[in-house]
Amino acid sequence: MHKGLRDIKKEDLVRFILAKEGISEDELISLMSKQKDDSFIGAETIPISAFNAGLFPLEAATRYMKENLGKKISIIARVLGKNTSSISLAYRKASKKSFSFSEKGPFIPVSEFEKNSHLSILEVIVDYLRRKGLRFSDIARLSGRDVRTVWTVHQRARKKSAKPGNRMRR
Fold first, then answer.
1. 3-state DSSP call for residue 129?
2. For 8, which DSSP code?
3. Side-chain-facing half-sphere of 17: CA atoms under 13 Å
4. Could you give the CA distance from residue 142 to residue 31 in angstroms, rounded to a whole number?
5. pTM (2 decimals)?
6. What Cα–Cα distance (Å) separates residue 22 from each residue in 71, 75, 99?
7. Among candidates 133, 134, 138, 143, which has minimal Cα distance to 57?
8. Residues 6+ apart with CB under 8 A from 61
9. Tens-place pLDDT, residues 139-151
10. DSSP label of 5
11. Domain residue ranges of the chain, discontinuous segments joined by +
């Protein structure tokens, strides 16, 4: 009676969804171009080694996104759930410190920080790596932190995420 999904053209499906949602093609194009300029589309990541480079986690994330991903302070602030003055200060402090890291090891998708902006930078990192199956000892070794610190950070992230309205968005 009905067409199988593989018989439907992508263009027809997009037009159907746009009509159902009441969005014109021009509006969609406008939204997509704004999204592309203002956020992290694709698989932009930060290597875990960047957080083991002698900087505080916020400083490391800010400096990496600014210098290696070429993002503006305002975009970084939105992604990390902080105000622009906090990000500017973190970047200024990080700029005065040496920053070297390797482009190997586990990578943290930048989108994880945006999805979980109610968590601290370190909480996002630990939670992400735990969901990927790493043990606390592995996370501690990679992040240059004590195992007990990693465990505590993970517990704190779980408690924050369990609060109503603060669910982790995955």
1. helix
2. S
3. 8
4. 38
5. 0.69
6. 33, 29, 49
7. 143
8. 46, 50, 51, 76, 80, 113, 121
9. 999 988 999 999 9
10. G
11. 45-162
